[in-house]
Amino acid sequence: MNPRLVTQVYRPVRRHFPRSILRLNSQHHERPNGTALYTTVSAEEVKKFAQMSAEWWAPEGHFQMLHQMNPARIDYMQKFIGDILTKPSPRVNTPDTPSASPTKESENTDTPKSSSINVTQPFRGLRMLDVGCGGGLLCESLARLGGHVTGIDASVENINIAQVHARQDPLLCHDPRQLEYINTTTTEQCESYDVVASMEVIEHVLNPRQFVQDLFALTKPGGLVFLSTIARTPLAYALTILSAEKLLRMVPEGTHDYHKYIRTDELRRLVESNAGGRVLDLRGIWYSPLDARWILVDPSWGALATQANYIMVAQKIRQ
Amino acid sequence: MRVWDGISNGRIHFSAQDFQQPMDTPMAWILENLNLHRAAVKSLDQMSDKVELIDRTKVVNINESREVVNSFNADDQSACPDWPVVQLDSGRMLQTRLLVGADGANSPVRKYSQIDATGWPYPQHGIVAIMELAEDTRPVTAWQKFLPTGTVAILPMPGNYAALVWSMEKEYVPLLKALSDDDFTCVLNAALQLPFEDLHYFLSTLKAGSVTADHLTSDLTNRLTTNAANVTSPDYKPPVVNAIEKQSRASFPFKLQHADRYIDQRIALIGDAAHTIHPLAGQGLNLGLADVESLVAVLTEAARLGQDFGDYNCLLGYSSARYFPNLAMLGAVDKLQKLFSTGNEPVAFVRSFGFNMVNSMPGFKAWLTKIAMGQ
């Protein structure tokens, strides 16, 4: 395939979701059907993201903003995981040569696997879970930094995309235990993890209270839960729906549902009064269009900083 | 650094003393290319456990993995389909997460990634040479004279030697290259010391072909002798060239060229592959080094944060940091080139006024110097 064709494949075809999805979602929110009492997954939301799944890894696709947000998330996670889950972070030679590498390929190609890169692996030895992993944007980064990562998602299409994409990177497929994806929902997982992350997911679930409780149930006592979402404020509406969806069309219309956004005080309450967690830090995360990246905002900015996108870390209280 | 307008005698003297605070680093370095090469090879040797240097080889082809690897790999999904594969003339194939195009103005990497470059050629070519200067006129600083046919720049080297970068309208370049070393030395001295009219007369008569080069150079020699007796401003005494090193004369075309983008998925262009610039301000290498510095910072941060550093969105940080600063420098140097290549009297008058005014403003000179230093 010539590069020109590839560019065409990467370039997103803009799909416009019918407004009815928005309405359907809010109806579900008001009158959850029977299954919603036992699972937090919204069928409509799963369908919506399944339709977009092929876009996950397109460099300039619908998920470009999430790609650009990824470094800030990892930066935040490193900051707190390093401080609290004090594991030694040895400099190691990443075994860049996968044991399960395709052998035919190595006949006369110097694959990148033959080299070795010195990478700091701050998450080495940690069991990490990404709930609502989508195409695996966060999972891949966590695995490269040494974590033993499980990504789960309610959409089988997303899981397929994530699995296929991880196999395309020799750093990720050298050890099958390093990164696994499972098509399931939170309530079906019952293992305990050092770190549970769910980024930009809670604003898409049906029952946030149950969802947060599930996240903490999956976490080891003393372990960390990372959550990022959008606050239900006029500013957030202006930025994430009016600007990003309707005016600039950076993400498809209908990606977000304003009524499902969660204010910072609401999320704090969900964590601290229902789920047995203690919020360690909560800060805003802002997009800087000039250098095309997201920045973590210093808490000294005051209340305004957390009026739109924000990220939070909580520790599960030891019994 | 001394800069001299050859039409109007306007002058600027750039010096580290222009700065109010003493500078912790020198204003600029003048290095022979060979020294840079040696230093680069030496530091590569020191990290030979991480870097493989493949020399005496040529790149015969660049493809995407999905075109190359498929034929001998049944499991398509494991083949890193969008990774570039570089094929060497030894038959070796290198598959890579990120391909950095540092392969010059006609960059094959840029062609592979189908990134267009826009620009235009300058009417001048560069003549370079190594020369030996008369002891008492050897400049201790860089020395530059603007002439309508192009800039004459002299960059000091150890001993009495100096490097010449003479930009010259391209129609005269073959004529100057055909001259003997002695005749060329004579013309060069005329360009440095005599009024521009003398050089202009020489070039146009030589081009017309009615008089032999020998005859013309003996005329110039006489004028130079007369002129040497009448030098009035010892401050700006131009260098006198004793001889040109044998075999050191060469010429190359100048062009302005800027890639439409610096990055693509798994591609980053740096240096001349991304931009070429007129050498009159000596900024080509500086821009390339700034590219390297920026790209390394972006890749280091991406690796620290577990990102796939060949990914387009990771590389965006590099292109957004470098594209507009480079574009601004390309544009500014292009305007300087146009300003100084005119012999138009009113323009030369205003230009000379500007030269002398800038020369009397140390703060402004310091600001200009900082920009040229890349700060």
TrEMBL record, chain A:
It is found in: Mitochondrion inner membrane. Residues 87-119 are annotated as: Disordered. Pfam families: Methyltransf_23 (PF13489). Gene3D superfamilies: Vaccinia Virus protein VP39. S-adenosyl-L-methionine binds at residues 73, 132, 153, 199. This is Ubiquinone biosynthesis O-methyltransferase, mitochondrial. One of its GO terms (biological process) is methylation. HAMAP family: UbiG. Component of a multi-subunit COQ enzyme complex, composed of at least COQ3, COQ4, COQ5, COQ6, COQ7 and COQ9. GO terms for molecular function: 3-demethylubiquinol 3-O-methyltransferase activity; metal ion binding; polyprenyldihydroxybenzoate methyltransferase activity. O-methyltransferase required for two non-consecutive steps during ubiquinone biosynthesis. Catalyzes the 2 O-methylation of 3,4-dihydroxy-5-(all-trans-polyprenyl)benzoic acid into 4-hydroxy-3-methoxy-5-(all-trans-polyprenyl)benzoic acid. Also catalyzes the last step of ubiquinone biosynthesis by mediating methylation of 3-demethylubiquinone into ubiquinone. Also able to mediate the methylation of 3-demethylubiquinol into ubiquinol. CDD domains: AdoMet_MTases. Its EC number is 2.1.1.64, 2.1.1.-, 2.1.1.114. Mg(2+) binds at residues 200, 203-204. It comes from the Eukaryota. It catalyses: a 3,4-dihydroxy-5-(all-trans-polyprenyl)benzoate + S-adenosyl-L-methionine = a 4-hydroxy-3-methoxy-5-(all-trans-polyprenyl)benzoate + S-adenosyl-L-homocysteine + H(+); a 3-demethylubiquinol + S-adenosyl-L-methionine = a ubiquinol + S-adenosyl-L-homocysteine + H(+); a 3-demethylubiquinone + S-adenosyl-L-methionine = a ubiquinone + S-adenosyl-L-homocysteine. Pathway: Cofactor biosynthesis; ubiquinone biosynthesis. InterPro entries: SAM-dependent_MTases_sf, UbiG_MeTrfase. Its cofactor is Mg(2+). One of its GO terms (cellular component) is extrinsic component of mitochondrial inner membrane. Keywords: Magnesium, Membrane, Metal-binding, Methyltransferase, Mitochondrion, Mitochondrion inner membrane, S-adenosyl-L-methionine, Transferase, Ubiquinone biosynthesis. Belongs to the class I-like SAM-binding methyltransferase superfamily. UbiG/COQ3 family. It is a peripheral membrane protein.
From TrEMBL, chain B:
It comes from the Eukaryota. GO terms for cellular component: mitochondrion. The keyword Transmembrane does not apply. One of its GO terms (biological process) is ubiquinone biosynthetic process. InterPro entries: FAD-bd, FAD/NAD-bd_sf, Ubi_Hdrlase_CS, UbiH/COQ6, UbiH/COQ6_monooxygenase. Its cofactor is FAD. It holds the Pfam family FAD_binding_3. Keywords: FAD, Flavoprotein, Monooxygenase, Oxidoreductase, Ubiquinone. GO terms for molecular function: FAD binding; monooxygenase activity; oxidoreductase activity, acting on paired donors, with incorporation or reduction of molecular oxygen. Residues 60-159, 245-304 form the FAD-binding domain. Belongs to the UbiH/COQ6 family. NCBIfam families: Ubi-OHases. This is Ubiquinone biosynthesis monooxygenase. It comes from Dispira parvispora. The gene is COQ6.
